[in-house]
Amino acid sequence: MVVPLESTGKTSVEPSADTELHRRLVYGDESALAEVYTAYGGLVRRVALRVTRSPAAAEDVAQEVFAQLWSRPYAFDAGRGTLRTWLSVLAHRRAVDWVRSEARHRKDARADDAALHTIPDAAPGPDEAVVDRERSLLLHSALAELPQPQREVVHLAYFAGRTYRQAAVELGIPEGTAKTRLRTALRTLAETLADPPDPAWERGA
Amino acid sequence: MTKDHDEVRDLLAAWAFGALEPADEKKVPLHLAECEDCAAEAERLRETVRLMDGPHDPHGPHGPHGPQARPAADTLPLALRARRATPRVAAHAAPYAAAVAGLKALLPEAAGRWSTPVVHDWDVHATLAHLLAADEPLADRLGIDTQVRPPLDIDADTPWEDAWNRRTAEVIAHEYGRTPEETVADWAAQADALLATPEAHDPELAAHAVTLMGMRLPVAEHFLVRAFETWVHSDDIGRALGLSVPPPPEAHLWQLVRLAVRILGLSLGPTAPPVLFAVTGGDEWVLGSEDEPVRAELTLNPVDFCLLVGGRYAPDEVPRGTNGDEGAVRNVLERAASLAWL
């Protein structure tokens, strides 16, 4: 009988689905990207749409996110988190960047009448909608700046529809830690609203 | 009461995000009805989430006439364009094509870190230069023009190991006079040219044996040797950069294992004490003499076996399962490690 004397540290016992997908992505297997896209394309678009509120921009962000995973597969490390969280965080980051650059363009073109098209004329009244929109962007900008551990749990709870317990399991952290991180994160975001630092987010600083 | 208060307070953010467990759903509103502090906090947090959701204008800020999204069906094909497609080649060259694609994907991570020490006295740049030199004999043999580098200044009767080491030293010295990006471009161009040869596409053309680096093998197997070396050096570079390079795709890994077993068997010869050799998840072979009863059993994981043959494990360090005559096992492990030329 052959008895394995020790286990190897070089290969994991049972590679996770993400690890296997990453292996195929690294070695240029297009069907692996198609699988990731099928599984997470919806989440990525949803995140991007929530921030940009533009289906066209959300589609562009989705393309950028999957292009990034495909061309730089080593930017994702299966040892440090799940593909779901990584894609969600990346989509959010790119969507916030898109909005910042839009805001810059709008400012540059303020004299231009065409810029006024960006102001909605639908209910509940332009002023209120504009203010809400600005606050929403302020919050998403602040979310993108949160420490990574807090950001990840917010992404799972808020965008991916996970309960705090499911999020804890996915992140490999205790349930109490997940609750605490959610709370710290959301309080930080709430304080951003109460005391907006400066409109730096709009300048992309 | 206090216990309830503390528990619910910890749950308020999850509640605001709609991330409660079903069992908690009732607890929170019951407590909020009787605790002003928590009710105020809950209201503040939920309002924050509501604002993150954004205004509920049905058409978004761009109105019904905003820019149209292009069809979602285009998104994946457009994303796939971010990387050159791996060339479609015959099965014997597919592991090399994948290994080249994998190293191309790794190299952008080396930007700004080209002088990180990797293996021997090579940094990332020199390791690439070595691969450029190591792919050269097969490229030459398949009629690819490799004249951009210093001409080979080595006698034909020099032992192959010496010739190999001198050529690597020459090319490294040459490439140090250029930028890492230029070395990468030349390595990639030579690899692409190898994958574009008729021999990479036609198993019959790849069936004739040629002697390269002291090994007389069919061209098809020299392609596997190139895959093997490209992967092992990618793994070296990954370790140096703190990135975990995955093993080759399963089917390719087994092609490499079978080649290595064949070379190991030839190297052990027909009189070595026979050892039943198993690779986890795959086949078993009897290595050594066929005329004697098996003296020992040895089991290795496929990746560890490849890394042993690639010189990345000392014979006594490789994780293994053994049974029977220790000396016979040691003979196999030491012979496997001695095959390394990388």
TrEMBL record, chain A:
Residues 37-104 form the RNA polymerase sigma-70 region domain. Gene3D superfamilies: 1.10.1740.10, Winged helix-like DNA-binding domain superfamily/Winged helix DNA-binding domain. InterPro entries: RNA_pol_sigma-70-like, RNA_pol_sigma-70_dom, RNA_pol_sigma70_r2, RNA_pol_sigma70_r4_t2, RNA_pol_sigma_r2, RNA_pol_sigma_r3/r4-like, WH-like_DNA-bd_sf. Residues 137-189 form the RNA polymerase sigma factor 70 region 4 type domain. Pfam families: Sigma70_r2, Sigma70_r4_2. Keywords: Sigma factor, Transcription, Transcription regulation. Belongs to the sigma-70 factor family. ECF subfamily. NCBIfam families: sigma70-ECF. This is Sigma-70 family RNA polymerase sigma factor. It comes from Streptomyces plumbiresistens.
